[in-house]
């Protein structure tokens, strides 16, 4: 009942959730029921690709919550995404067991390769799925909490904060590139075999992952929607528009920022954990500042401050990326840059803003 | 005093340590009839003394106007009272019991001091109603804010304030769409929603038309008595229309205090305002 109330006045959200529900049902059916070669058949490769996009859409919603509603332009959400991904990757590595190239029952291949003789302490517990899932949320959440506590308390805002988040993800990338860190260095974590006993190469597992990702995206959307329609959500917008005023009517601005920023980071971590089993690898490249900037562009293209707009933007830009990096690989980065410039100048409210304007005119 | 005496002092059974005293969430004590004490306050920015040994007392329920030439330290004084600026020395007490030096801005707001900025600052992408809702006194921690629902009493309170500031018809309008004067009133309304004991109002009529000014004067005088109102203003006609007691600030300290006529007749004030 409360869920219905949440999206009662949210037409875009209704549409988004309906399309998502339809896709969640239809795409697996088209994959499973129709024979290969049928014009409407969707290949498992495509299903996994779409699953990846949906994980990105969840990430975009997390970015929009922080940027569109709280006014924190985070250029480091890739760090939270990657940390969630690494936590999931560590679980998947432990599941390989003795099926690795070196056949060590305990140590992942890269540790054997580095001549390590024992599992580092921070790898303990990752053989248990519940612990890994807990870490998927705790690791990015804790990083965001500590970072935010220091930054917001010192009243660092605006572009300075953005630069700091960028530096944060860059520093983590450099750290994770080092073999001594114990996260597989340059190569990252890969060669995964199974998740909860399901073979990751099997079509059924891939479809299952797609459905789980779609459900998490819907759940993430609804929770974010609940936050932004609550009084806390209105306080967040108040902080975005007039921080001093909010402070002088008695809200602890830094606590509001910290709570929402940390939640946003947890959501990004969950997106990362959904992404890794579908692409089969996580490496330090995910921490690269470019990735975090791309996320911001997804949100800008879709239209910030609407949540579903961010998800739509993520889907559109990633589809464009898949297409362009296949057809014209050299052009992609220029296209991305041009897209950002054009959207900023011509569509300050993104594609969703454009559609709303069209609707208002007609 | 040797260390044994020190120890004895510490161990005294009737001793109450400063850090044990409750500093937040106190109800302001007005038993002596004075709501604000500013004593020996000085603050300097890069060697420039913005406030210089300022002593100011405000009685509970009065409407006080503070005037002074540019750079007299009027806004800095408000910054000190609301916790935005920490003075180099001196003390600031709210009532008998609340030491403003120890509190942060939100804590001071919760204690019952509301502030209107020089430039009207409202939440432009919220409606007038939502602006008032957010300003309402209450538990403003994260979780209670997340789960907050408006009840009937609170709605009535918002309606009441909407009536005081004459914005009933604009209640569902975005605050960004209001005129300059309406924004000023909305900001005063937001202060009222906090149920403050003390209202600090910085230049409420800047940029207002004459009708709007009259309306604002009416509003502020009607608030005095139930609230204590401190108005900082440049416009002398406006000050004359509302003031009972005027304080003149000059170079960071009090130059003169009294009724508007007394103050205007004071030769030092004339000199400051008109020059030699």
TrEMBL record, chain A:
It comes from the Bacteria. Pfam families: BPD_transp_2. It comes from Sedimenticola selenatireducens. This is Urea ABC transporter permease subunit UrtC. Keywords: Cell membrane, Membrane, Transmembrane, Transmembrane helix. GO terms for molecular function: branched-chain amino acid transmembrane transporter activity. One of its GO terms (cellular component) is plasma membrane. The chain crosses the membrane at residues 12-33, 53-86, 129-152, 159-177, 207-228, 255-276, 296-319, 331-352.
TrEMBL record, chain B:
Transmembrane segments: none annotated. Residues 36-276 form the ABC transporter domain. The keyword Nucleotide-binding applies. Keywords: ATP-binding, Nucleotide-binding, Transport. InterPro entries: AAA+_ATPase, ABC_AA/LPS_Transport, ABC_transporter-like_ATP-bd, ABC_transptr_urea_ATP-bd_UrtD, BCA_ABC_TP_C, P-loop_NTPase. It comes from the Bacteria. One of its GO terms (cellular component) is plasma membrane. GO terms for molecular function: ATP binding; ATP hydrolysis activity. The keyword Heme does not apply. NCBIfam families: urea_trans_UrtD (TIGR03411). PANTHER family: CONSERVED COMPONENT OF ABC TRANSPORTER FOR NATURAL AMINO ACIDS-RELATED, HIGH-AFFINITY BRANCHED-CHAIN AMINO ACID TRANSPORT ATP-BINDING PROTEIN. This is Urea ABC transporter ATP-binding protein UrtD. It comes from Sedimenticola selenatireducens.
